[in-house]
Amino acid sequence: MDGQTVGQKLATALALLDDGIDLMRCRLRRERPDLSPEQVDILIEQWLRPAPGHLQGSAAPFFRLRKAAH
Fold this sequence. Notes:
Radius of gyration: 17 Å
Structural class: mainly alpha
Strand content: under 5%
Number of strands: 0
Number of helices: 2
Oligomer: single chain
Largest sheet: none
Order of helices and strands: HH
């Protein structure tokens, strides 16, 4: 093991999520300077929401649930 507790790993993961959101917010402001802060928030929320039928998480578009073998 790397010596990190589960709590430390979770804190790291959440910090990385926050950083990713900040980067996307900066990208949206740079690419779409016409958007209001509220519109940017809406786009961020949509970006975070998984596509229907996919697993939760950042890799969600690449994985689909498999049916159990009988």
